[in-house]
């Protein structure tokens, strides 16, 4: 960027470019504009404060009837619905085995009786013990 060369003999008002030179009227206009902006901001702030005061004055106080209570836990209900009964699906005796392929619970007698058939012989079985909650709930 090239700067205009000025000679020391020409120092004065003519050395300042005309776009930068401002008259006192221009400066007064800028100050008036700045004051108008500040005044407008103050008016908006006062208006907002007044609106908030009116809003707070007209709101009903919070009472126990209008207090929002937390929702009850749905997990407990969902767990109860998904919870399996800890007894044999055939005879309702206490279950001791779970068939992983059938996804059913059996007592010892029923698991031997049903899973000795050829179509069930390859089913995988595991020991079953109900959860502490189920044992307590069903007196297992």
UniProtKB/TrEMBL annotation:
One of its GO terms (molecular function) is phosphatidylinositol-3-phosphate binding. GO terms for cellular component: centrosome; cleavage furrow; midbody. Keywords: Coiled coil. This is B box-type domain-containing protein. GO terms for biological process: abscission; mitotic cytokinesis checkpoint signaling. Residues 1-26 are annotated as: Disordered. Residues 31-58 form a coiled coil. Gene3D superfamilies: 4.10.830.40.
